[in-house]
User: Fold this.
Amino acid sequence: MSEETMSRALERAVSLIQKSKSFYVGTHIRPDGDALGSLLALSLALECRQKRVARLCADPAPASYGFLAGADRISPKPPDWTADMGIVVDCDGIGRLGPLEAVFERLPRLLDVDHHATGQTFGEVRLVDPSAGAAAEIVYELVRSLGVEIGPDIAACLYAGILTDTGRFTYGNASSDSLRIASELVEAGADPHGIARNIYEDRSVAATHLLGIALARLSANDDAGVVSAMLTRRDFVETGAAASETEGIIDHLRAIGGRRVALLFVETDGDRVRVSLRSDGSVDVSAVALQFGGGGHAMAAGCTVQGRGEEVRDKLLAAVRGALRAANAGHDS
Ligand SMILES: [Mn+2]
Assistant:
């Protein structure tokens, strides 16, 4: 989004917020660091402006984000009061709210704050900037536009969002803006060491065993540069790892030299497979994920597909190889 369009959207967002007294702030199912950091920072900022706020997410926050201010106040159900306005952060389409979608759709005003590029925007005002490394970068601008002074709590939430969504400032979406904002957040009191320890050095023994299984089972002998690994429901039973403890496994797959696309397949309840995709930039994996009802970014995407493990894996691998061939053909012509 151009700077001018963005600043106009910011102005409209601020005036909509000023007109409202009470808010539901929501984010996507299976929330990640950006979802949680954005939701919690914005909620704190609204409370600084004497607004009433309910923090909503259909799924609980992973324990490693419990240190963020207000994480214990996130609820899967709306409160007994109705909000004047809803703000949805980091959601590629309102459907990403899961069971909370209907709750937000009923609200008189809706603001979409996001950085996904698939164009599934919604709400009266759309503060959507695909060039942002994290939704937290846009929330940072919004919080400042609201005239809220950023203290250590808001700073830590936003820093956590940017840190995780840019892969600790290593992904292609990490921009000079990401680093500039992160630097300003550290000045405002965010603690880079403490935040990184909380988020990245909190893996359970069970989850570490699960990581070991995924690595032992990875398949990387593929001419096209596709690497993948599969975790079955049995792996979770045998290790005792929770379904949510797969975070970070895909990063080990994407770190393999010469790899162009990495995929992690995780069997879940109800005969479904959760798929994480990472690309080195040779193909847009969000386009592949979209074909299977998911979404994400060009270099990091995901989807959940009905079917048995091998069956889903074969379909996804075929789609990825097709996309790689199409990308190659595009380069040759
Ligand atoms: Mn995000």
